[in-house]
């Protein structure tokens, strides 16, 4: 090595000064004095260069450049032996090819930078070998030796030697296909990853229609590298299914033949409860996967399998029909798989007339304008030439696409970086451009239609509650006085000319406070559901009303202790005989509770829970109680631990519930049900009687008053979202406490039926002054509850 280095230096310095001398001597034919001056200057420059900049480069600080790549040998064939790192064939072939690689690099101008090389794997067909090598580059040369240059230099060398069988051994033994060179700049980290998997490299060709199961590293190696290859025109789909609730294993998937950071598709750490099944796509027929085990266990914490799936064209023409209902879905190929690093989708939509625009309804994904030209990290959208970046969120979002001059709409989705994410899907529908949200307010921030003037700032900017004449009240038509909703259609004239009692038995235009019958007509009468009076023409408001009735109570009770049968929907959610949370029976086999009860990893699995209905004492079993196992547990997909937003969970019970006076579901309100602030409702549970206390033995009850949203929002410094409802007293004293979580906030309607208004969610301490209890607002999560139960 030192010898070559020395030669190179001399060549460098002499060639440089020769150049200068030559050009100078050319000039000196005409301008002798100047020529001499230039000569002197050049000499001085050379000397300066020599003294100031020249340092023997092996003493100069240097950096290491890493390259990963592959080459194909035309006169050798892959054999299964070569797939096994421990085999003699592997050892022999890799040693020879390693030397070949070294000679190849040495034969070029890169030779003097050569530091090390390794051949780590072989691929099928005409033998492909995978390697990495390291160049040690002096800092001063760093700019010149680019990945592009290295690629060109090596390709040139391979091409020239391919036709002229030279004297170097690599040229005689192996016919290396120059055009097969794949070279990727990598990092020290990449090489470290590669090195850590050396003992466990596994190559597999994935056939079409074949599902290949990948086994985890064993006790001999803590980390393995899979190199998967499929047929041309296919992508590799990796399917990952967690089987253990807890693990510390790490998985990384790459869109290349080696674990190169730059081609990382995604990495997953630990067992994820949010995504029990994950599917990941590569952009072409190659994927590598690194599986790092945290500790050796006999069982793999997940099932990993691979499959070759055809590349799907992602260009679709859609003609929309004249109808305001949802019409269909657009999404990334192989949804719900992760989108692939090279996704490019285009949807052309044709609307029936210029009266309509198109709405794209997203789930947990929003679009936003990007000021700079930076790549979108979670998907780029181009909609009618507007560039938007996608962003995963925990909210609903709708993109409204106005249609102006042409009925054609073009929507494109592109993944701009190799890192991808869960597949993206949107439902599409038309909207009426002159009235996008009939009876509601269009929130421009998120494209959603929200109730206006109902006292809840549904729109993030609060504009739905701006300029309201009667916030959360009924407005008399004749003079704009405001009256409470409980006085509407109560057969007493409360507005001057009685407009509150008009149209009480006929359909009215739909609005935030109107009840929608199954036939689509809307009623003005507030809360007509299950009040034992037929209000809808189709009687749909009185169907399915077997709910919300207390058992006839044997005695009048004033204390905090409830009596048996008083709260027949109350559930006790237990783990190993211990009461953890409350719950509420809302339908046969369905109990609703708070998502935060299941947040702890140890409480996340449905199988550990037992649900008791008809329970009264905690310390004893009563003859009326029935226990259930939980077969499925659903947390609201937008539930957020820190903000407690969407704090709701559904538990599906393992066997049917036999309804009796002591076990009965509570009534679920209609989405338009209005729980008027000031109303006294009840919370029940076995929770602590004071902050930090033990749980109670007998089912407790406490009456609380519903609080106006804006008052509570202020008390809690605006941490109250539209999915929350506050109840309690300004002075404190009565509140839910530890152990009550998930239990019901139940309100009695004049008809005598009880409706579920909220779920015990959070609060600052228990019963502290000006710290109301915060409940999950049921009317805001009804859509998810209904959808999950069906
Ligand atoms: C390769 O680089 C490392 C780190 O700079 C150095 O320690 C080692 O001696 C080099 N090896 C060769 C053969 O140049
Ligand atoms: C080398 O051979 C390849 C194909 O065998 C041919 O395409 C190429 O032109 C040849 N190059 C030279 C420099 O002869
Ligand atoms: C969609 O329509 C355009 C012309 O309107 C046509 O060129 C294209 O082939 C169509 N694409 C598909 C996938 O049908
Ligand atoms: C759109 O809304 C306007 C205003 O409410 C209404 O007159 C029109 O009939 C609606 N158009 C359609 C197609 O629904
Ligand atoms: C109430 O009705 C009477 C008689 O129809 C009418 O004269 C009066 O202006 C109405 N009052 C209001 C406030 O509209
Ligand atoms: C359960 O608790 C109640 C009231 O605290 C008590 O009267 C009863 O004896 C207890 N029963 C058992 C079996 O411990
Ligand atoms: Ca509102
Ligand atoms: Ca009235
Ligand atoms: Ca009714």
From TrEMBL:
Gene giving rise to this polypeptide: TMPRSS6
Keyword Cell cycle attributed: no
Gene3D superfamilies registered for this protein in UniProt? Low-density Lipoprotein Receptor, SEA domain, Spermadhesin, CUB domain, Trypsin-like serine proteases
Q: Which domain of life is it from?
A: Eukaryota
- PROSITE patterns recorded for this chain? CUB (PS01180), LDLRA_2 (PS50068), SEA (PS50024), TRYPSIN_DOM (PS50240), TRYPSIN_HIS (PS00134), TRYPSIN_SER (PS00135)
Q: Which GO terms describe its biological process?
A: proteolysis
Q: What is the lineage of its organism?
A: Eukaryota, Metazoa, Chordata, Craniata, Vertebrata
Report what the protein is called.
Transmembrane protease serine 6 isoform X1
Q: Return the annotated region ranges for Disordered.
A: 1-21
Q: Where is the Peptidase S1 domain?
A: 556-790
User: Keyword Protease: yes or no?
Assistant: yes
């Amino acid at each position: 090595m030192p010898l070559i280095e020395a030669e190179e230096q001399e060549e460098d310095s002499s060639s440089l000064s020769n150049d200068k001398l030559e050009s100078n001597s050319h000039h000196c034919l005409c301008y002798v004095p100047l020529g001499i001056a230039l000569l002197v200057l050049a000499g001085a420059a050379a000397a300066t260069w020599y003294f100031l900049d020249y340092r023997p480069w092996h003493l100069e600080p240097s950096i290491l450049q890493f390259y990963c790549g592959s080459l194909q040998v035309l006169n050798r064939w892959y054999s299964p032996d070569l797939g096994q790192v421990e085999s003699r064939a592997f050892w022999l072939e890799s040693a020879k090819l390693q030397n070949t690689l070294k000679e190849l690099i040495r034969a070029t101008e890169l030779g003097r930078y050569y530091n090390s090389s390794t051949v780590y794997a072989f691929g099928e067909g005409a033998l492909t070998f995978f390697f990495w090598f390291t160049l040690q580059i002096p800092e001063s040369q760093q700019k010149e030796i680019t990945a592009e240059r290295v690629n060109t230099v090596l390709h040139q060398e391979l091409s020239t030697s391919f036709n002229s069988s030279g004297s170097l051994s690599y040229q005689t033994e192996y016919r290396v296909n120059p055009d097969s060179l794949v070279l990727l700049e990598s990092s020290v980290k990449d090489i470290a990853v590669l090195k850590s998997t050396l003992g466990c490299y596994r190559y597999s060709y994935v056939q079409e229609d074949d599902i290949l199961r990948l086994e985890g590293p064993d006790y001999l190696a803590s980390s393995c590298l899979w190199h998967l290859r499929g047929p041309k025109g296919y992508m590799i789909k990796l399917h990952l299914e967690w089987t253990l609730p807890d693990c510390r294993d790490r998985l990384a998937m790459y869109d290349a033949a080696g674990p190169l950071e730059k081609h990382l598709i995604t990495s997953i750490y630990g067992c994820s409860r949010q995504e029990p099944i994950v599917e990941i796509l590569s952009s072409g027929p190659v994927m590598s996967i690194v599986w790092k085990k945290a500790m050796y266990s006999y069982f793999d914490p997940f099932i990993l399998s691979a499959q070759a799936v055809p590349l799907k064209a992602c260009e679709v023409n859609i003609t929309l029909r004249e109808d305001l209902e949802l019409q269909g879905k657009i999404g990334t190929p192989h949804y719900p798989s992760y989108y692939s690093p090279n996704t490019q989708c285009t949807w052309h939509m044709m609307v029936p007339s210029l009266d309509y625009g198109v709405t794209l309804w997203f789930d947990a994904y929003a679009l936003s304008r990007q000021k700079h030209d930076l790549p979108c990290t979670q998907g780029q959208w181009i909609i009618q030439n507007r560039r938007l970046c996608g962003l995963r969120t925990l909210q609903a979002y709708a993109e409204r696409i106005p249609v102006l001059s042409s009925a054609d709409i073009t929507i494109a989705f592109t993944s701009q970086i190799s890192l991808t994410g869960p597949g993206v899907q949107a439902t599409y529908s038309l909207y009426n451009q002159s009235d996008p949200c009939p009876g509601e307010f269009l929130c421009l921030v998120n494209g959603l239609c929200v109730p206006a003037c109902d006292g809840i700032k549904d729109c993030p900017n609060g504009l739905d509650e701006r300029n309201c004449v009667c916030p959360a009240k009924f407005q008399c038509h004749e003079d704009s006085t405001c009256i409470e909703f409980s006085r509407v259609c109560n057969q007493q004239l409360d507005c001057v000319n009685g407009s509150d009692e008009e149209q009480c038995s006929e359909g009215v235009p739909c609005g935030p406070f109107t009840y929608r019958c199954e036939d689509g007509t809307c009623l003005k009468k507030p809360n007509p559901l299950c009040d034992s009076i037929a209000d809808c023409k189709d009687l749909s408001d009185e169907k399915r009303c077997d709910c919300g009735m207390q058992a006839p109570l044997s005695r009048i009770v004033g204390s905090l202790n409830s009596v048996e049968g008083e709260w027949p929907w109350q559930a006790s959610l237990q783990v190993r005989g211990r009461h953890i949370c409350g719950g509420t029976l809302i339908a046969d086999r369905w109990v609703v509770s708070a998502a935060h009860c299941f947040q702890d990893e140890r409480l996340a699995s449905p199988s550990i829970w037992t649900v008791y209905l008809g329970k009264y004492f905690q310390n004893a079993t009563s003859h009326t109680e029935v226990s259930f196992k939980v077969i499925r547990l659903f947390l609201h997909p937008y539930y957020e631990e820190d903000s407690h937003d969407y704090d709701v969970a559904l538990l599906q019970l393992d066997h049917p519930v036999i309804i009796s006076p002591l076990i009965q579901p509570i009534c679920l309100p209609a989405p338009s049900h209005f729980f008027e602030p000031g109303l006294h409702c009840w919370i029940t549970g076995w929770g602590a009687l004071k902050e930090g206390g033990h749980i109670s033995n007998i089912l407790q009850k406490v009456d609380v008053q519903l609080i106006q949203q804006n008052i509570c929002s202020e008390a809690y410094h605006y941490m109250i979202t539209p999915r929350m409802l506050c109840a309690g007293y300004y002075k404190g004293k009565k509140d839910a406490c530890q152990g009550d979580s998930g239990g019901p906030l139940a309100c009695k309607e004049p008809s005598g039926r009880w409706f579920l208004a909220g779920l015990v969610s959070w609060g600052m301490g228990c019963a502290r002054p000006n710290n109301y209890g915060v409940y999950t607002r049921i009317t805001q999560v009804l859509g998810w509850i209904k959808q999950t139960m069906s």
